[in-house]
Design brief:
This protein is α/β, with parallel strands linked by helices. The chain has a single domain (8-329), classed as TIM Barrel. It contains twelve helices and eleven strands. The chain has helices at 8-11, 24-29, 31-37, 49-52, 62-73, 103-120, 148-153, 157-168, 184-199, 220-231, 261-280, 323-329; strands at residues 17-22, 40-43, 77-84, 95-96, 99-100, 126-133, 174-178, 206-209, 212-214, 236-245, 285-290. The strands form two sheets. An eight-stranded parallel β-barrel has the order 1-2-3-6-7-8-10-11, surrounded by five helices. β10, α11 and β11 form a beta-alpha-beta unit. The two termini are 22 Å apart. The chain binds alpha-D-galactopyranose (GLA). The site of alpha-D-galactopyranose has 6 residues, from loops. Alpha-D-galactopyranose binds at residues 81, 133, 179, 210, 241, 299.
Length: 331
């Protein structure tokens, strides 16, 4: 990359941290881009329960430790992601021999898992942990989605998880993190969940807005309303997993093989508008994380359509700045 290219982390130093999701492969292949542009990282997968503790009583911190080492070497912060989730969690946590585990056993495992992991990463470069990820039902009138945690422990699994996390580390900000966070129906549910936690004096410090967005959704007004509603709770806000897909969620087309100039322009316009909103609300927003460093690698190349190329990030497949990058850095 040429010398004149601006750095996101410098451009935004008076606003918020700028992060990227990483894995060991991207830390190898994209290390210059990551170290030069960003000042925060989130492990894309390596701090999830299925990686950290695939088997009971065994912990595998190896890959995640390498990520933390990179953060240390390059003066970057870390967001811990994620302690309690219905996905990417090993089956042993929910079983007692051949039977389903009971409430007390699951609570004691949850406590141990949270304590061990947060104590292992008791490093000052961690500035947040996602304690509970995606607990809310997207549709319908139920507040919480089905999950083995809800099924066995009951609705208070979320409260207990935040309490265990606070016990494990009295200082670190604790987050509830979810997607479709700007959708009005889900926004009201996220607000209710977190407000109830606050009313019960459960230690929750922030809301993570995943921000898996696209060229059409969500509407800018809905993003503003979501930020304002969450901020009214007096919590910190982080944008935790941002990408701007070229495809709407229900667009399952597979015939697009290059990013057209029109699409690149539309994406740049969207990125520009999103970051302008983030700047406007920067007193509430402490951190904005993109869910990949560049279009070279990102999870949307396989989701929701397998093997379909997508171009959701600020840098292209050769890790060079796209029009979106220029729009985000010129204001
Ligand atoms: C969710 C999770 C992330 C990641 C993405 C897909 O948003 O919170 O950890 O798994 O899905 O990459």
């Amino acid at each position: 990359m040429s010398e004149e290219v601006l750095k996101l982390k410098d451009v935004y130093k008076d606003y918020f941290k700028i992060g990227t999701a990483v894995n060991l492969e991207t830390l190898e292949k994209d290390k210059d881009l990551i170290a030069s542009q960003f000042n925060s990282m989130t492990a894309e997968n390596d701090m999830k329960p299925i990686i950290l503790s695939l088997e009971e009583e065994k912990f595998n911190y190896g890959p995640a430790d390498q990520i933390v080492q990179f953060a240390n070497d390059n003066n970057m912060g870390m967001r811990g992601h994620t302690l309690v989730w219905h996905n990417q969690t090993p089956g042993w946590m929910f079983k007692d021999g051949d039977k389903k585990a009971g409430r007390e056993l699951m609570l004691s495992r949850l406590e141990k898992y949270i304590h061990t992991t947060m104590n292992h990463y008791n490093d000052s470069l961690f500035y947040a942990w996602d304690v509970v990820n995606e607990a809310i039902d997207d549709t319908g009138s139920h507040l919480l989605r089905e999950s083995p945690w809800l099924d066995t422990i009951g609705e208070d699994y979320i409260e207990r998880a935040f309490e265990f996390a606070r016990d494990a580390n009295p200082d670190i900000p604790l987050f509830y993190n979810d997607y479709n966070e700007s959708h009005p129906h889900k926004r009201e549910k996220i607000y209710k969940l977190v407000k109830d936690l606050i009313d019960k004096e459960i230690p929750v410090d922030g809301i993570g807005l995943q921000a898996h967005w696209n060229l059409e959704a969500p509407h800018l007004d809905d993003i503003r309303r979501a930020i304002e509603k969450y901020a009214s709770l007096g919590l910190k806000l982080h944008v935790t997993e941002m990408d701007v897909s070229i495809f709407n969620f229900d667009d399952r087309r597979k015939d697009l093989t290059t990013l057209s100039p029109e699409m690149e322009e539309k994406q740049a316009e969207r990125y520009g508008e999103f970051f302008s909103i983030f700047r406007e609300y920067h007193e509430y927003i402490d951190s904005v994380t993109l869910w990949a460093a560049s279009d070279r690698y990102n999870w949307l190349n396989d989701f929701p359509v397998e093997n379909r190329k997508n171009w959701p990030m600020l840098f292209d497949e050769a890790n060079q700045p796209k029009e979106s990058f220029y729009r985000v850095t010129s204001f």
